[in-house]
Design goal:
The protein contains ten helices and five strands. It is of the alpha/beta class. The chain has one domain: P-loop containing nucleotide triphosphate hydrolases (Rossmann fold), CATH 3.40.50. A five-stranded parallel sheet has the order 2-3-1-4-5. Helix 3 runs parallel beside helix 6. The protein is globular, with a radius of gyration of 17 Å. The protein binds cytidine-5'-diphosphate. The site of cytidine-5'-diphosphate (CDP) has 15 residues, from helix 2, helix 5 and helix 9.
C-alpha cells in the first residue's frame, strides 16, 4: 500500500500533480486545503469572523465535515484563502482535521492500494511514514502568474492585469509567511522529501519527474 505526500507553497503545482498522479495510479487524492477553505467560507457566510469563540465555532463545524462531499466545491478565492490561513493556526481545529485526513488515508489506502494527499503538513504530520514525499515550490512571481491564469479572466487591460498580479504576489507572500512561521504544523519540507522547484518546468514535466521517482527511474 502506497502513501504519497505532497506539500508546498501556494500555487506551486501541488494540486495538478496530485490529480495527475491520482489518474495514473488510480489512488484517491485529497486536496487538504479544501478543508480549511470550507471552514473559512462558512465563517464568511455566517459573518462570525470577529466572535470571541471563533476557534470553537470552527471546531463545531469541522466535526461534521464529510470529505467526500467537498470534492466539487469551488472555494478558490483569495479572501477565503487568507482566512483559511488564519484559522489553520488553531491547534484544536487542526487536531480534528488531522484525524479526518488520516482516516481518509487509512480507508482509501486499504480500498485502492494507495492514497495521495496534498497540503502543508502531509509529509511531516499527517503521513510521516509516507512512501514518497514531495515538497513543491516555485518563485513567487511564477506562482502568482499561474494563479492569475487559473482565474480564467478572458480580457484584462494591461494595467488591471499588473494590478491583479501585484495583489496576488502580496497575498501569497503573506500567506506563505504565515504558513511557514506558525508554531503548529508549519510549512517546512520533511527531512526525507524530494524538493522540486517548478519555476522553470511545466505541470507535465513535474508529473514525469515525480512519476520517475516513484517508479525508481530517477
Ligand atoms: O491552493 P493553495 O496552495 O493556494 O492553498 P490551499 O492548499 O487551498 O490552502 C489554503 C490554506 O490552508 C493554506 O494557506 C494553509 O494556511 C492552510 N492549509 C494548512 O494549513 N494545512 C494543510 N494541510 C492544507 C492547507
Amino acid at each position: 500500500m502506497i502513501e504519497i505526500a505532497i506539500d508546498g507553497t501556494a500555487a506551486s503545482g501541488k494540486g495538478t500533480l496530485g490529480k495527475k498522479l491520482s489518474n495514473k495510479y488510480n489512488f484517491p487524492y485529497l486536496d487538504t486545503g479544501i478543508l480549511y477553505r470550507k471552514i473559512a467560507s462558512y465563517i464568511i457566510k455566517e459573518n462570525i469572523n470577529n466572535t470571541s469563540d471563533l476557534e470553537k465555532q470552527c471546531c463545531d463545524f469541522a466535526q461534521n465535515l464529510i470529505l467526500e462531499e467537498l470534492k466539487n466545491e469551488n472555494l478558490r478565492t483569495e479572501i477565503v484563502a487568507k482566512l483559511a490561513a488564519k484559522i489553520a493556526t488553531f491547534p484544536d481545529l487542526r487536531k480534528i482535521l488531522n484525524n479526518k485526513q488520516k482516516e481518509f488515508n487509512k480507508i482509501n489506502k486499504k480500498k485502492y492500494g494507495g492514497c495521495i494527499l496534498d497540503g502543508r503538513d502531509i509529509g511531516t504530520i499527517i503521513l510521516p511514514n509516507a512512501d514518497f514525499k514531495f515538497f513543491i515550490t516555485a518563485s513567487l512571481e511564477v506562482r502568482a502568474k499561474r494563479r492569475l491564469l487559473e482565474k480564467n479572466i478572458s480580457f484584462l487591460h494591461e494595467n488591471d492585469e499588473k494590478c491583479m498580479l501585484l495583489n496576488l504576489i502580496n497575498n501569497m507572500r503573506e500567506r506563505d509567511k504565515l504558513d511557514s512561521i506558525r508554531k503548529i504544523s508549519p510549512l517546512v519540507p520533511a527531512k526525507d522529501a524530494y524538493i522540486i522547484d517548478t519555476s522553470l518546468i511545466n505541470a507535465q514535466e513535474l508529473f514525469f519527474k515525480v512519476s520517475n521517482i516513484i517508479e525508481g527511474k530517477k
